[in-house]
Amino acid sequence: MEQVRALEAPLPKPSSESYVSARLLEALVEAGLALRFLREGLVRNAAGKAFQAWRALMAALLRLELDKLKSLAKTEDERRWLESTAVPRLPTGRMKTLSQMLEQIGYSDISLWTAMALELHDYQYHGPDPDMAWSKYRSSEEAAYDVAKLVQGVAKYAEFLKPRVKWGEELEKALESLRGAAQ
Predict the structure, then answer these.
(1) How far apart are CA 59 and CA 51, in angstroms?
(2) What CATH number is associated with residue 47?
(3) What confidence score (pLDDT) does residue 23 get?
(4) What's the pLDDT tens digit per position in 90-109?
(5) CB 12, CB 155: distance < 8 Å
(6) pLDDT at residue 14, rounded to an integer
(7) Which InterPro entries match (predicted)?
(8) In this structure, is residue 5 part of a structural domain?
(9) What is the mean pLDDT of the chain?
């Protein structure tokens, strides 16, 4: 319950040092909720939570790497957009582009994870689609598999970022809880 309360607290300003930690906590808690929904058979809800977890993780990465990303921007407007919109809001329609930018600075497989997250986002709204016109998943079992994989990706990236962020007891508990739920 402590973690849920942490999610309900307002996010620190993106310029704050604690913003990355807050978004990582959000990612871990949302990923844990995705697994809980999976266990309860709520695959569409689980897909939504897995997507939210990935989106929160990406927001943390974008803030952490903002200076490097701004150096990739071609114009001053793009640099301002990264700071004013990409980091605090992370528009869904730009996640693919932003993940490609993160790949350019060293996050080698992030666009693949983002593609999976976006497919789960579609699944959340359209459900299983045997014709694959609205969703890339023909069954809830296919989507459930990717939910579990995306949650693993969130945990992997959080673990990777541990030495680079202000990692407190709350984040450690959330990561341990996620690991326990994944088993």
Answers:
(1) 12
(2) 1.20.120.330
(3) 96
(4) 999 999 999 999 999 999 99
(5) no
(6) 85
(7) PaREP1
(8) no
(9) 94
Task: Write down the number of H helices and E strands in the chain.
Answer: 10, 0
Q: How far apart are the C-alpha atoms of 42 and 180, rounded to whole Å?
A: 19
**What is the extent of the structural domain holding 106?**
16-182
C-alpha–C-alpha distance, residues 79 and 149, integer Å: 33
Does any domain span residue 71? yes
Opening angle at CA 117, ends 40 and 154, nearest 5: 75
pLDDT at 167: 95
**CA angle, corner 83, sides to 105 and 13, nearest 5?**
115
Tokens of 176: 């341990």
Query: 23 in helix, strand or coil?
Result: helix
- Give the Cα separation of 74 and 4 in Å (integer): 39
How many Å apart are CA 85 and CA 96, to the nearest integer?
15
What are the structure tokens assigned to 157, written together?
Answer: 């990236």
CA–CA gap between residue 22 and residue 166 (Å, rounded): 10
Angle at 54 between CA 88 and CA 170, to 5 degrees: 80
Structural domain contains residue 20: yes
Structure tokens at 63: 């803030």
The domain tally of the chain equals 1
